[in-house]
Structure formats: C-alpha cells, structure tokens
C-alpha cells in the first residue's frame, strides 16, 4: 500500500518536477537553436511567420500521418518572391 504524503511533501515533489520541466525545456531550446544556427537560419532575416512556416513544414515531415492521409504530402513553405532571405532576393550571379 502506498504511503500517505503530507501536503508539504507533495509541494516539494511538485517543485522538483517543475524544475525538471524547466531544465528539459531549456535543453530542448538549446538543441533547436544550435540546429537552426548550424543550418544558417539564425543569420537570415526571417519574420516570425516565415520561421513558423519553416518549422511547421519540417515538423510535418517527421510526424506520423493517419492511414487515410498517408498519400497526401504537406504543402511546402514558399516565402514571398523578392523578400529578404529568399533565393530571388539573394542572387549570386556576380
């Protein structure tokens, strides 16, 4: 049979879990920030909406699809032509 815990013991456990949650969130954020920097996203002038679209597209590639939509592919993210950071705006033709 489980032992009864006092309210203070429960509060202590809750605080430990909250601290662990904060730690895991920070580690996850650092991991994604490192990947974004390594990929060059940190140096591009992207709006929050553009960045959200890029991340959503990447997430869709790795999420499990229900069986009835297995043949459908996610719509790729296409930034507006001529925007900073797009191939049209960053011509390297000399």
Major sheet details: none
Distance between the termini: 76 Å
Q: Please tell me what the overall shape is.
A: elongated
**Helix proportion of residues, in percent?**
40-55%
In angstroms, what is the radius of gyration?
22 Å
Residue windows where pLDDT falls under 50 for at least 5 positions:
86-94
What is the mean predicted local confidence, pLDDT? Answer: 79
Strand content bin: under 5%
Number of helices: 2
Overall strand count: 0
Key attributes of the depicted protein:
94 residues, mainly alpha, 2 helices, disordered C terminus
Describe the model.
This protein has 94 residues and is an all-alpha fold. 51% of the residues lie in helices and 0% in strands. The chain is built from 2 helices and no strands. The protein is elongated and about 55 Å long. The termini are far apart.
């Amino acid at each position: 049979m489980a032992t009864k815990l006092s309210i203070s013991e429960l509060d202590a456990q809750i605080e430990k879990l909250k601290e662990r949650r904060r730690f895991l969130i920070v580690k996850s954020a650092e991991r994604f920030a490192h990947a974004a920097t390594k990929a060059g996203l940190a140096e591009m002038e992207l709006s929050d909406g553009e960045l959200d679209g890029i991340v959503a597209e990447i997430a869709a590639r790795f999420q499990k699809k229900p069986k009835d939509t297995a043949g459908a592919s996610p719509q790729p993210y296409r930034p507006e032509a001529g925007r900073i950071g797009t191939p049209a705006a960053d011509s390297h033709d000399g």
